[in-house]
TrEMBL record:
SUPFAM superfamilies membership: Leukotriene A4 hydrolase N-terminal domain, Metalloproteases ('zincins'), catalytic domain
UniProt domain Peptidase M1 membrane alanine aminopeptidase: residue ranges: 234-446
Cofactor(s) demanded: Zn(2+)
Residue ranges of domain Aminopeptidase N-like N-terminal in the record: 29-195
Taxonomic source organism: Rhodobium orientis
Record's protein name: Aminopeptidase N
Catalytic activity: Release of an N-terminal amino acid, Xaa-|-Yaa- from a peptide, amide or arylamide. Xaa is preferably Ala, but may be most amino acids including Pro (slow action). When a terminal hydrophobic residue is followed by a prolyl residue, the two may be released as an intact Xaa-Pro dipeptide
Annotated ranges, domain Peptidase M1 alanyl aminopeptidase Ig-like fold: 453-553
Family assignment from sequence similarity: Belongs to the peptidase M1 family.
Enzyme Commission numbers on file: 3.4.11.2
Function: Aminopeptidase N is involved in the degradation of intracellular peptides generated by protein breakdown during normal growth as well as in response to nutrient starvation.
């Protein structure tokens, strides 16, 4: 069990940043592995930083460490020369000149249930150091602006740990007495401690190689649980494609002679970009057609790329402090999104990314956990690996590219790499490279990093046919967020087209009132008017094409105009958006009716628009699949914004789904039949798109009901030759409460028992079932032999999916869903505070609920807040949630 800090953690502030007083140039680690008593010897070359007073005490961070000895230049220090607690080692009066500090600590990897620092997973040893895990291995200046060259010697029993890995290149290895052996790794690139990694154990390996653009050969290795090697082929392929792409798109070549990835089954996050030794949650490595869905394949590709791309954006150039987290994360997400767009369909990728942005980031931005992309204060940094830092952070890079154009953007990136390679820098340094490379003033753009909240952009349009003039008036505002009551206007790039009656973009003459460059209107003032002359026909303005800014666009168009754009916009993103807007308008209306207990009205013109999309064979099937999906229940809740009744939303949405399924039954049946794939399974984007559309059709048929649809879905389940189809059929059957659901669930369980990642899907489908019995089912499943409170993937798939993927049951009117999650958070907090805190953030929209549920959610939060002890992680989330 973890020791839990009881005191209220004090806030860290960006404004208080000071350069480190001491620097550590090299560290030589000897790690003698033992399941409960691992001995770590760290020999560090330390010197005072410029400006540090002589004899300033040296304070090294620790966390739950047990100190064995301290030496300076080889001489053991007496007890009055230092002071040690598990969290801090102070050398009272260090030598004036450079010196060598040798510190010996003992750590217990088996007791490490929080999965930070050195821990065990499936009998193997592994480490996780971001953000502040290195201090759980040895005392160190555990901050990203201290860059050191690492040499790591690992010693272990040969039988227990035949494989010994660390960052960099293998420089030595051999046998030791008593059945032990050792390996020495050296990483020549100075790096912050958060990028340190070490892995040891019994692992299988898949090997390949890559030749870089300058002709260097790089060994590629993926290590997995023995026996799982055949499931690594797609990950390896994605890695090689990522390496090629970064050379072509950003001119970035890999720098070491070896690149290793290790898949582990116990991991708090998705994956980690440790230098030369990425550690992955195994769900983002392992795939074969029988066990992984098309979405899993796409995720693997994206995460492999993301971690690989960090080698330049994060590792070679790193963050000065953790406030700058978006410097590496937002930028690297942008890079992986661009990679996937180039590998697959750009429009489909953009729509999926924006869906994710809205459902996670917009929700976060609208509630008590809202924070700027670059926060200026934090209590627990682990709680800032958020949708805002990652996904909104990526949107800011995308806007930067829109503002500067592709060439300007590339010039800025090149200059950034040139100026800051090997440094730990800030968002200001990053933007300065773009400003300098292109001669652009980015001071207003910087506000995007500093101001939290989703700006609203209200538009009105007026067309004067005789004068052939179109006037668009924009008004921007940004709601108050914690600590930021008032916002300044931001630079909002609005990509646009004026769609004429034939669906083509109209040309126009002079533009007055605002800067328009290419297809972009630059809205920079609070109120901004732009007039286009020479507009020869009545236009429908298509605004914010490609979702060119992370804002909420309000007003401007009628339902008829959205319908027109849905059918005609040349920008596929805005076609999708137009359909979503139509659906959202309808659903908020029908939700109000359902809430008032009135019958839920239907809308034939909307059904016609859906039918037109479904049967338009000129459109990519993947696009059609996305366009046919209604906004999620949580998206509808966010749109409604206050007094939310999740049951009314579900009633309205289900009514519309069944109306669509009924009205378009013939189209869906024919889609289902014609999209059947004859060849062997391939995870490529086209094949995946056809499966997606076919499964959407099946789901609508089930939503409409009837025995024929149920029989079809049952056949789809049992006839499936891949996980995508099998899981889609099972999900539809379960959610439609079809009689065959039980049969499918039983079969699925028996078929995949013993495969934890697949059983996660089985947990998730049941946890998301929108029925009154689900909570007790989830409680019962916590006692299933495959479930474990100590494995983050199991917890996320059962408990996490219930909390975030089942709006009606988490938000049960009797409060039982809230209570269950509050108790789960408290239970988890004793073993893994990070996972507990993340689960607790499921409450982030509680204030928008109707009064009865709001009261029950608040009671559950207060119950958490009143518990002692609480981890700093949960303490931070609960106090901000209640603020
Ligand atoms: N830096 C990792 C990534 O985004 C995420 C991560 C953060 C992993 C903290 C573990 C711990 O690529
Ligand atoms: Zn990352």
């Amino acid at each position: 069990m973890t020791s839990v800090k009881n005191e209220t953690a004090s806030a860290v502030r960006l404004a208080d940043y000071r350069p480190p007083e001491y620097l550590i140039d090299t560290i030589s680690l000897t790690i003698a592995l033992d399941p409960t008593e691992t001995r770590v010897t760290a020999e560090m070359a330390i010197r005072r930083n410029n400006g540090t007073p002589r004899n300033a005490p040296l304070r090294l961070d620790g966390d739950e460490l047990s100190l064995q000895s301290v030496r300076i230049d080889g001489k053991r220090l007496s007890g009055d020369a230092y002071h040690a607690t598990p969290d801090l080692l102070t050398i009272t009066a260090p030598p004036e000149g450079a010196f060598t500090l040798t510190v010996e600590t003992l750590v217990d990897p088996t007791a490490n249930t929080q999965l930070m620092g050195l821990y065990r997973s499936s009998g193997n040893y592994c480490t996780q150091c971001e953000a502040e895990g290195f201090r759980r291995i040895t005392y160190f200046l555990d901050r990203p602006d201290v860059l050191a060259v690492y040499t790591t010697r690992i010693e272990a029993k040969k039988d227990d740990a035949p494989i010994l890995l660390a960052n960099g290149n293998l420089t030595d290895s051999g046998d030791l007495p008593d059945g032990r052996h050792y390996a020495v790794w050296n990483d020549p690139f100075p790096k912050p401690s958060y990028l340190f990694a070490m892995v040891a154990g019994s692992l299988g390996v898949v090997e390949d190689e890559f030749t870089t653009q300058s002709g260097r050969k790089v060994d590629l290795k993926i290590y997995v649980e023995p026996g799982k090697e055949p499931r690594c082929a797609y990950a390896m392929d994605a890695l090689k494609r990522s390496m090629t792409w970064d050379e072509e798109a950003f001119g970035r070549e890999y720098d070491l002679d070896i690149f290793m990835i290790v898949a582990v089954s116990d991991f708090n996050m998705g994956a980690m970009e440790n230098k030369g030794l990425n550690v992955f949650n195994d769900r983002y490595i392992l795939a074969d057609p029988q066990t992984a869905t098309d979405q899993d394949y796409a995720n693997i590709e994206a995460v492999i790329a993301h971690e690989y791309f960090h080698n330049w954006t994060g590792n070679r150039i790193t963050c000065r402090d953790w406030f700058q987290l978006c410097l590496k994360e937002g930028l690297t997400v942008f890079r992986d999104q661009e990679f996937s767009s180039d590998q697959r369909s750009r429009a489909v990728k953009r729509i999926s990314d924006v869906r994710l942005l809205k459902s996670h980031q917009f929700a976060e931005d609208a509630g008590p956990l809202a924070h700027p992309v670059r926060p200026n204060t934090y209590k627990e940094i682990n709680n800032f690996y958020t949708a805002t830092v990652y996904e909104k952070g990526a949107e800011l890079i995308r806007m930067l590219k829109t503002l500067l154009g592709p060439e300007g953007f590339r010039a800025g990136m090149d200059l950034y790499f040139e100026l800051h390679d090997g440094e730990a820098v800030t968002v200001e340094d990053f933007l300065a490279a773009f400003a300098d490379a292109t001669g652009t003033d980015l001071s207003q753009f910087m506000l995007w990093y500093e101001q939290a909240g989703t700006p609203a952009l209200a538009v009105t349009s007026a067309f004067d046919a005789t004068a052939e003039k179109l006037t668009l008036t924009f008004e921007q505002s940004c709601p108050p967020t914690p600590g930021q009551p008032v916002k300044k206007p931001m630079h909002i790039p609005v990509r646009f087209g004026l769609v004429g009656p034939d669906g083509q973009d109209l040309s126009y003459g002079a533009v007055a009132g605002a800067t328009v460059t290419g297809d972009t209107i630059h809205v920079v003032d609070e109120r901004h008017r732009v007039t286009f002359s020479g507009v020869k026909a009545p236009p429908v303005p298509s605004l914010l094409r490609g979702f060119s800014a992370p804002v909420k666009l309000v007003g401007g168009l009628t339902t008829g105009e959205f319908g027109f754009l849905a059918g005609h916009d040349s920008d596929p993103f805005n076609r999708w958006q137009a359909i979503q807007n139509l659906a959202m308008g309808l659903l908020t209306e029908t939700t109000a009716a359902a809430h008032a207990g009135k019958p839920v009205p239907s809308d034939d013109s909307f059904l016609d628009a859906m039918g037109a999309i479904a049967s338009d064979t000129g459109l990519d099937p993947a696009f059609r699949a996305l366009a046919l999906q209604l906004p999620g229940e949580t998206d509808i809740a966010r749109d409604i914004g206050e007094d939310v009744d999740p049951d009314a939303i579900a009633t309205a949405r289900n009514a519309l789904r069944s109306a669509i399924g009924t009205a378009l039954g013939d189209i869906f049946r024919s889609l289902y039949d014609t999209l059947a794939d004859s060849g062997p399974y391939s995870p490529d984007a086209d094949a995946a798109g056809r499966r997606a559309l076919r499964n959407v059709a099946l789901d609508y048929l089930l939503a409409a009901g009837g025995e024929a649809a149920e029989a079809r879905a049952r056949d789809h389940y049992f006839g499936a030759d891949n996980m995508t189809d099998r899981l889609a059929a099972m999900t539809s059957l379960v959610h439609a409460a079809a009689p065959a659901a039980r049969e499918a669930l039983t079969d699925f369980h028996d078929r995949f028992a013993g495969d934890p990642l697949v059983i996660d899907k089985w947990f998730a489908v049941q946890a998301a079932a929108p029925f009154a019995g689900t909570l007790s089912k989830v409680e019962e499943l916590t006692t299933h032999t495959a479930f474990s409170w100590s494995n983050p993937n199991r917890v996320r798939s059962l408990i996490g999916v219930f909390a975030t993927g089942n709006p009606t049951q988490f938000n049960r009117a009797d409060g039982a869903g809230f209570e269950f999650i509050a108790n789960a958070v408290l239970k988890l907090d004793r073993s893994n505070p990070q996972v507990a805190a993340r689960l607790l953030s499921a409450f982030r929209s509680w204030r928008a609920l109707e009064p009865e549920r709001r009261e029950r959610a608040e009671a559950a939060l207060r119950q958490v807040a009143a518990t002692t002890p609480l981890s700093a992680d949960v303490q931070d989330i609960v106090s901000r949630s209640l603020d």
